[in-house]
Amino acid sequence: MIMTGTDRRHAEQLFHDQQAAQRAESFRTGAAQLLFDTNAYLDHETWVRFAFEQLGDLRGRCVLDYGCGHGMAAVTMARAGAIVTACDLSAGYVREARQRAVANGVVVECVVADGEDLPFADATFDAIWGNAILHHLDVASAGRELRRVLKPGGVAVFCEPWGGNPLLRFARALLPYPGKHRTADEQPLTVSTLQPLRQLFPRMELYGFQLLGMLRRLGTWPHFLSTLDAVDNRLLQWWPSLKNWCRYMVIVLRAC
Prior knowledge:
The protein has 256 residues and is α/β, with parallel strands linked by helices. It has one domain: Vaccinia Virus protein VP39 (Rossmann fold), CATH 3.40.50.150. It has 9 helices and 7 strands. The chain has helices at residues 5-24, 38-42, 48-53, 72-79, 91-103, 139-149, 166-174, 195-200, 222-238, and strands at residues 62-66, 83-88, 108-112, 125-131, 150-161, 205-209, 248-254. Strands 3-2-1-4-5-7-6 form a 7-stranded mixed beta sheet. Strand 1, helix 4 and strand 2 (83-88) form a beta-alpha-beta unit. Helix 1 (5-24) crosses helix 5 (91-103).
């Protein structure tokens, strides 16, 4: 049976609505559970702070949190002075993002929207942020919408699981590890799947994260992992092509 784009989007929406409903159970005791520290969020994965820095100064800029999920990125950008719109296909996650913005005392416009058919006018946003969203979508369709709503001179930054390492592909497919939750159709991005984006954004920049440091998925050994991260930084400086073997990629798109 061949799954159409509509079927795929419905399946993604259902999966994430169910996930959001499970998360909502933990927020019933009060808004305090929706509060979070900006630095803790920026440092919860090795690539997040670096990726946020690529957005530049957000004060007074119109920014889209594309596939906002729990809304922490939207709140973080609002705290930095941005005028933030957050969108997600999942109404459940949009509800959580709205609650998190209110609980943290910032203004975020939260909208249920399909990432491949955005309800925004052309050239609306100075910057776009997305975390683990593109690999759920048809990259060509999503790319056209991103290019359409991004202002000339704007920047879009995405943090995405990467599929260039065959050993990692094997582990993702067959090995159990903490936090392994996926929809049926999502696939880590690769150089070939990014070609539609490169055509739309010729100034694409790619930065790899967690080469040896991907071992953190098997457990927590803080001192050992900090050493691996330092080795990763040095290796990726010396041999940039090794980024294709990393666990995650930061993708920076600049609109001409």
